[in-house]
Backbone:
């Protein structure tokens, strides 16, 4: 069970979730240079949206119907909140000094967490989420149905995004805005709309990740956005901020690194006590600091609009 | 918007259609009636706190109504130009009176409604309450009937806006002798202390809310009257004296308390205020967003705990004298500050935010794990280090009560006084650093890093100094907090939690209070600590309130309550109404903003 | 004051490449002490990129730049410390600081009181602050803004803001002052005033390098003028020589001429276009290189 291939598989699965969330961070940062702190909470609310759909549907509904409906429910919530945040919290602060939207984002993140905790029934502890628990054994690796869903979802999303960015008009407009927003505007691109789309896609992918998370772990919690969000941002930086392929790559690398560290660090003499789940997050952050020290532009290089 | 109020202009009228003379009389009468209604019984049962049941003896919230009523009368008399009271309303605008009346209305109606809801029904209200409710409506109606420029032509909303607007230009006061200035400052300090003490001593939430109504609206009224500006100018000319007065007031506070519980609140406010002031150097002066600041507080606290001689400490044989412990705490935080800052301050500011957030989490996780099981035993894990002995200087044991000059100083009062000393140091550090070569370089870096670098400022080095300084001040405050709370545990040192201290709370305190000022973070910390403390129902929702507050503040008043002039200008790009945005090609001298 | 010919700034064979784009190509350049040198060229010629190589913002891909014999350090603040000060094309004052504070910030490199000094406020601190203030007021007097010392920089009219930027740059006691389009947006009177200011600065012993588009301004002031076209130095000489050179005129107008830099690429593109059988070749054939990375 704890063989290297299993750990790798676990790491990649965890990493795909990070990657999906990271895309939201990286797209927004690439265009407006804002760390959307609330993105972790958008991920979380997507999960609660999906849960609401689940609870509203009669029990016994087949998962084949449930999962798509939950995805839709989660996506609607996440995208609405993401777009709403952009429109009402961030857009008025476009010209303000950098500190202002950052602080707003933090406030929004807090507010969203607390709204869910206070007003969603029984949300102050983890809430059960339907799981896809059937396992399959492939060689020495065991994966669940939920993991298959995650893999398929991640691949589909990345493929969609790649096509969208490179083939569609809006996608190209997005690239242009990410490189040079002022010129893009002069070329007739509605940069406001592009920014909204970036937020929306980020929200959509976060919702997918959230449903995958719930299906995999069987529960969701109002605090899950904080840590996942932090690590997803780490992944985005690791891969190269602004670079959507970097986001997924960074996610996978982070997921694998974190999983392997938890599993094997205590095998290193002198570090016996530093392994295991309790230190996993520390290693993730340590990785972030190392990346920032030695390769701040990330693995695939950054793509940030030049605002100087 | 350059209207000049002319009291004698017959064409102006008020929002509420009342003849002017009637309005003026009604205003005075209403204010007096409001005050008088406090002497009636408002309810027949003492189930509502404060005992509002006896005619002739106001209790609890009734005193607030009384105060608000009297203030309304005073502002009204000033507005009418009564000799001797003119100073209360230098521009003769309607705002102070309207706001004061609003405050009276607010607190009275709040009380009445609270009685009804708490006790379950209007039957619980005595006629006196109805009298009060009606009486408090009158001054507001009358005030809105006073002539206000443009009342006829504009929409009601715009007119209302003008009613509470501050006048554009406040005439400068007559020059007064220095001793009179100092007298005024002293008087204001005493009133401020009394008000603050009253606020802290409120025993039940409803009283605190009523208190807030009166205080907020009165302050707002004073602000629109221009008196706050005048006082600021007074303070600016008497800086050291004001600071001394401030500290005298701070020191006097515990002597005004009969119950050590309130001194506990006081010392907590001081600790958080001091830490917020340290964060202010990092965020407010240098513009670096540090989201893990509370970790530095934690480092200081843990260091102090480890060397305190507590038997749970890993170094239980060691007991440093306080000055050594304080230095160690500050030094430990300094080292961590440099370790975190060195790699990240070279990068763009957004990354600093994330890294500090991460560091804050790492600190808590690490400290939680270093219990011998998941890591070497340094901090005793989740149980933390309890049983920290009290400090003792020259035989003065902080843990015991002492009687001084007839006043009793309990345990918290003792620590409170120590914290006043520490806060004095931090304030000194802050003001001296801000007004110096390094302070200017921080502001330059914050304003335009490229230009600053071109002027020869080493951005990285300067930022690191700010960051490390902030860290060490937090560490210093942390050493005291360890002794105050008897023990240190990992749990509070998180980004966001239900009780302070946590990084979100500190950031909110700095932002709400006002970045870049001395009084701002202290005010912010006091407010953010007191509100959930006093209003128990808020405790659960306090984080939600912080979050919403941050969003709204950044949108509408990013400079916070006490605005640093420079920051206000930074946030409101077109704040200079007198100078057009586009450049002029002639050498017309532009209007200045000197002395602000 | 005799003009010595000791070089203050020496740029040898400076080349700056950004990926595939060569913005500056093998430029040799010298400024001697007491000289005013002008640098002109059409937009996109690489002037600002070259400028940034002189201020530590860019490290040249090839070649080197030395100031008074020492190679320039790779960081802008160290370059200023070494003795080169600059102004910016788009004014970059500290808008929310007062006029005096702006100049005080300029004094940063020539003072050394750090945090401890500020906290302890010994006599050394007070003396240093006083000295900085005195020197700053001297500079403000020099440019004529002393009476506005407590005005906010953002409240100054445009011309005075430009002067303030110069005063701020002078505060770091430079041996070489780089002025980036100092008269952009000025009317003729302001331009005259700036001319006199520049002469006055030169008379203080500071060498000056100007980038400018206002030809009369440049030619009035400069002892020597260099022309940069497509990243290469086309011509260098006295104003009279440069003014008379037809190639300079042609470069500005965009008409092709013998030996124009970048001519090979132009020829290639023309050939390709002819091959591709598109519509009539465009008249201005040498505007094909993109100008990313430069703001000129």
Residues:
């Amino acid at each position: 069970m704890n063989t290297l291939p299993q750990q790798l598989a676990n790491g990649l699965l965890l990493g795909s979730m990070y990657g999906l969330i990271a895309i939201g961070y990286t797209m927004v940062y690439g265009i407006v240079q804002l760390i959307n702190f609330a993105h972790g909470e958008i991920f979380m609310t997507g999960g609660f949206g999906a849960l609401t759909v689940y609870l509203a549907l009669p029990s016994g509904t087949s998962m084949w119907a449930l999962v798509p409906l939950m995805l839709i429910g989660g996506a609607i919530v996440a995208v609405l909140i993401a777009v709403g945040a952009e429109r009402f919290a961030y857009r008025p602060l476009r010209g303000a000094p950098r500190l202002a939207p950052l602080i707003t984002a933090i406030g929004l993140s807090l507010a969203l967490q607390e709204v869910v905790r206070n007003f969603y029934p029984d949300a102050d502890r983890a809430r059960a989420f339907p799981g896809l628990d059937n396992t399959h054994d492939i060689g020495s690796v065991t994966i669940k149905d939920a993991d298959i869903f995650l893999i398929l979802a991640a691949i589909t999303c990345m493929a969609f995004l790649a096509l969208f960015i490179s083939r569609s008009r809006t996608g190209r407009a997005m690239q242009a805005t990410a490189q040079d927003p002022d010129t893009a505007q002069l070329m007739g691109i509605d940069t406001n709309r592009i920014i909204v789309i970036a937020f929306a896609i980020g929200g959509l992918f976060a919702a997918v990740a959230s449903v995958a998370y719930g299906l995999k772990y069987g529960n969701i919690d109002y605090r899950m956005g904080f840590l996942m969000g932090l690590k997803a941002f780490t992944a985005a930086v690791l891969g190269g901020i602004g670079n959507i392929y970097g986001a997924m790559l960074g996610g996978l690398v982070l997921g694998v690194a974190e999983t392997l560290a938890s599993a094997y660090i205590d095998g290193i003499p002198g570090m016996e006590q530093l392994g295991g789940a309790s230190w996993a997050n520390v290693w993730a952050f340590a990785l972030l600091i190392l990346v920032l020290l030695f390769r701040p532009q990330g693995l695939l290089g950054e793509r940030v609009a030049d605002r100087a | 918007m350059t209207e000049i109020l002319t009291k004698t202009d017959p064409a102006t009228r008020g929002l509420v259609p009342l003849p002017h003379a009637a309005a003026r009389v009604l205003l005075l009468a209403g204010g007096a009636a409001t005050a008088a209604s406090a002497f009636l019984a408002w309810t027949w049962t003492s189930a509502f706190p404060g005992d509002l049941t006896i005619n002739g003896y106001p209790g609890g919230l009734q005193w607030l109504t009384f105060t608000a009523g009297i203030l309304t009368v005073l502002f009204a008399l000033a507005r009418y130009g009564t000799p001797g009271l003119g100073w209360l309303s230098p521009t003769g605008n309607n705002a102070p009176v309207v706001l004061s009346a609003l405050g009276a209305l607010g607190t009275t109606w709040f009380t009445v409604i609270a009685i009804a809801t708490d006790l379950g029904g209007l039957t619980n209200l005595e006629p006196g309450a109805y009298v009060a409710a009606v009486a408090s409506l009158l001054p507001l109606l009358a005030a809105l009937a006073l002539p206000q420029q443009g009342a006829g032509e504009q929409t009601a909303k715009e007119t209302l806006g003008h009613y509470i607007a501050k006048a554009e230009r406040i005439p400068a006061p007559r020059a007064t002798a220095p001793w009179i200035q100092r007298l005024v400052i002293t008087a204001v300090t005493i009133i401020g202390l009394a008000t603050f003490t009253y606020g802290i001593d409120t025993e039940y939430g409803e009283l605190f809310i009523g208190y807030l109504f009166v205080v907020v609206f009165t302050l707002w009224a004073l602000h629109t009257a221009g008196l706050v500006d005048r006082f600021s100018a007074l303070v600016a000319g008497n800086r050291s004296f004001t600071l001394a007065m401030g500290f005298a007031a701070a020191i006097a506070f515990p002597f005004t308390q009969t119950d050590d519980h309130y001194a506990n609140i006081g010392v907590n406010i001081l600790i958080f205020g001091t830490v917020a002031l340290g964060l202010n150097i990092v965020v407010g002066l240098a513009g670096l967003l540090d989201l893990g600041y509370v970790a530095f507080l934690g480092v200081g606290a843990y260091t102090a705990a480890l060397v305190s001689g507590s038997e749970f400490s890993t170094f239980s044989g060691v007991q440093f004298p306080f000055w050594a412990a304080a230095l160690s705490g500050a030094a430990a935080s300094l080292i961590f500050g440099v370790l975190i800052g060195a790699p990240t301050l070279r990068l763009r500011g957004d990354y600093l935010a994330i890294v500090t957030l991460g560091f804050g989490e790492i600190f808590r996780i690490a400290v939680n794990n270093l219990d011998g099981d998941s890591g070497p035993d340094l901090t005793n894990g989740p149980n933390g280090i309890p049983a920290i002995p009290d400090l003792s200087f020259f035989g003065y044991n902080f843990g015991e009560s002492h009687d001084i000059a007839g006043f009793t100083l309990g345990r918290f009062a003792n620590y409170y006084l120590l914290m006043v000393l520490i806060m004095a140091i931090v304030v000194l550090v802050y003001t001296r650093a801000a007004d110096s070569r390094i302070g200017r370089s921080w502001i330059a870096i914050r304003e335009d890093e490229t230009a600053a670098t071109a002027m020869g400022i080493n951005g990285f080095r300067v930022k690191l100094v700010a960051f490390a300084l902030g860290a060490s001040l937090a560490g210093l405050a942390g050493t005291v907090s360890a002794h105050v709370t008897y023990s240190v545990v990992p749990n509070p040192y998180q980004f966001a939690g239900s009780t302070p201290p946590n990084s979100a709370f500190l950031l909110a305190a700095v932002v709400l209070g006002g970045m870049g000022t001395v009084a701002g973070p202290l005010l912010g910390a006091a407010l953010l600590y007191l509100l959930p403390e006093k209003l128990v129902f808020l405790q659960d929702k306090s984080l939600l309130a912080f979050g919403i507050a941050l969003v709204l503040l950044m949108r509408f008043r990013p400079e916070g309550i006490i605005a640093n002039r420079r920051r206000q200008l930074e946030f409101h790009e077109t704040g200079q109404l007198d100078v057009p945005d586009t450049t002029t090609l002639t050498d017309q001298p532009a209007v200045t903003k000197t002395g602000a | 004051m005799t003009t010595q010919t000791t070089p203050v700034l020496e740029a040898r064979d400076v080349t700056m490449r950004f990926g595939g784009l060569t913005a500056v190509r093998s430029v040799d350049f010298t400024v001697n002490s007491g000289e005013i040198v002008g640098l002109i060229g059409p937009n996109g010629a690489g002037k600002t990129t070259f400028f940034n190589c002189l201020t530590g913002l860019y490290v040249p891909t090839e070649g080197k730049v030395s100031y008074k014999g020492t190679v320039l350090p790779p960081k802008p603040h160290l370059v200023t410390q070494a003795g080169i000060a600059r102004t910016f094309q788009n004014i970059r004052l500290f808008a929310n600081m007062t006029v005096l504070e702006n100049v005080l910030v300029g004094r940063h490199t020539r003072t050394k009181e750090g945090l401890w000094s500020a906290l302890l406020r010994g006599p050394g601190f007070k003396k240093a602050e006083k000295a900085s203030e005195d020197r700053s007021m001297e500079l403000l007097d020099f440019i004529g803004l002393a009476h506005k010392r407590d005005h906010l920089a953002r409240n100054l009219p445009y011309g005075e803001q430009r002067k303030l930027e110069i005063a701020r740059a002078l505060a770091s006691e430079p041996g070489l002052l780089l002025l980036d389009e100092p008269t952009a947006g000025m009317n003729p009177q302001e331009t005259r005033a700036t001319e006199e200011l520049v002469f006055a600065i030169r008379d203080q012993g500071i060498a000056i390098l100007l980038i400018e588009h206002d030809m009369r301004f440049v030619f009035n002031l400069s002892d020597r003028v260099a022309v940069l076209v497509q990243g290469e130095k086309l011509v260098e000489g006295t104003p009279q020589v440069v003014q008379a050179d037809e190639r300079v005129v042609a470069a500005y107008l965009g008409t092709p001429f013998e030996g124009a830099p970048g001519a090979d690429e132009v020829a290639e593109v023309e050939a390709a276009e002819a091959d591709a059988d598109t519509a009539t070749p465009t008249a201005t054939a040498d505007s094909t290189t993109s100008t990313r990375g430069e703001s000129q």
